Amino acid sequence: xxxxxxxxxxxxxxxxxAERAGVTKSTxxxxxxxxxxxxxAGQETLSxxxxxxxxxxxxxxxxxxxxxxxxxCASREMGPVSRKLGSxxxxxxxxxxxxxxxxxxxxxxxxxxxxxxLANRGVPTPAARLAAELGLxxxxxxxxLWVEADGTDDAGLEPYVLAALDELYAAxxxxx
Amino acid sequence: xxxxxxxxxxxxxxxxxAERAGVTKSTxxxxxxxxxxxxxAGQETLSxxxxxxxxxxxxxxxxxxxxxxxxxCASREMGPVSRKLGSxxxxxxxxxxxxxxxxxxxxxxxxxxxxxxLANRGVPTPAARLAAELGLxxxxxxxxLWVEADGTDDAGLEPYVLAALDELYAAxxxxx
Lengths: 176, 176
Known about the structure:
2 copies of one chain form a homodimer. The first copy, chain A, is mostly helical. Chain A folds into 2 domains: 1-39, Homeodomain-like (Arc Repressor Mutant, subunit A), CATH 1.10.10; 42-173, Tetracycline Repressor, domain 2 (Orthogonal Bundle). Chain A is built from 9 helices and no strands. Chain A has helices spanning 2-7, 14-21, 25-31, 43-56, 63-76, 80-94, 97-120, 125-148, 157-172. The longest helix of chain A is centred in the middle third of the chain and has 24 residues, at 97-120. The radius of gyration of chain A is 18 Å and the shape is globular. Chain A binds chain B through residues 62-64, 100-102, 104-105, 107-108, 124, 126-127, 129-131, 133-134, 137, 141, 164, 167-172, 174-176, and chain B through 62-64, 100-102, 104-105, 107-108, 124, 126-127, 129-131, 133-134, 137, 141, 164, 167-172, 174-176.
């Protein structure tokens, strides 16, 4: 992230990244298929946590309550380091079409994972898709505000994401 | 699309595409920056139509009614050729990670355009984002069903998309 920030994403090579991290290029490639994957590292973990939280919700939980559990599970894993990196990642993504694509794919992937976990609970397809999008929007919005507020509070990501979800769900009642 | 279908997307070159279309490579590149862009050709038109429809809705239209106008505008532009190409595009996208990324970026872009057009109408941010996602889900779902049903009816895309929107909006009431 330092290198992307100093030289720009496009101008940074894997050789430079490996050197800065004190590893060989082949070690780098054992963990990441290319430098782009650095910025979405954690997508698998995030997907797993979202799905686990949704699955672990009580059987009688509404789709929204199940999504809330998924968001809680995922949010708790994000600590101060994630918060600090967040604004740098934002700058890097804003400056690179390639990263915007990868980021878009990540969003679509996370929504699909949540929709799948909801479908496994017996939630009908349209409700599952919609609840997953609501969860994704809440996660992205909460994360953005949490990163922006870095330095002003010591809060975890969870209250930010849950507040965003509440706001979105309230908005859902004003659309029609 | 024929070439992608015959040889696979990865194995198809721009030279082959240009030859099959009876144009030079430089003509191809005047219209598309690379072969990937072929599959999302029309994204700008689609964005424009969605935004125009939303903007043209009566001032007192609800966010959902405005999105409905956007979807109507865009759906009316999709004719039998789009319907026929749809299943081939689906196969090509399913087989290529590169195309899935571009397709994800298209989705994110269309949602952003709709959210922007709604914000211009004074719709608050959370409601605008949510209504935009609802519109995007409806468009994608309606389009998928319309393409699947090719050959079974002569319907346009519009009724498919509006039915999907109705279904999603009904689902929104069952989430909580």
